[in-house]
Specification:
Length: about 130
């Protein structure tokens, strides 16, 4: 689990630092640089956490049942439920506004459905062999 220093920044300091981080990442993306600053900034655990949260939002937008999401991604039902409540309250609109404009929605499901992927049938011919 990621840890945060006990020394807190005030809200204004945190907002300014975060804005600078986002500005830097956006510049990197716009310049289409091959290096990704997130690869250097994030730990493996943080990458997994963010990728799974992103997948939850996509799956919720595709009406995948909550129980299937937590079984597929190995996340806590409480986390999925909380994210579902946020989704229902419209809290992920910036992430979802690109729906239909790019094919990353399909790519996420393709990654989850490929051979050995997470969303394999649990019974029948296509079931995972453990």
């Amino acid at each position: 689990m990621p840890h945060i220093s006990k020394k807190n920044l005030n809200g204004d300091q945190l907002d300014k630092l975060y804005a600078e981080l986002i500005r830097y990442i956006n510049k990197t993306v716009i310049r289409n640089e091959k290096s990704n600053p997130l690869d250097e900034l994030l730990t493996r655990t943080e990458k997994i956490m963010l990728a799974k949260r992103f997948a939850v939002i996509i799956m919720l937008s595709q009406d995948v049942p909550q129980h299937e999401i937590y079984e597929t991604l190995g996340m806590s039902p409480v986390t999925i439920n909380l994210m579902s409540l946020h989704y229902e309250n419209g809290n992920y609109t910036n992430i979802l506004k690109n729906n239909g404009k790019t094919d990353y929605w399909k790519k996420i499901f393709d990654h989850l459905n490929t051979a050995g992927g997470l969303m394999q049938p649990k019974i029948g011919r296509g079931k995972k062999k453990i």
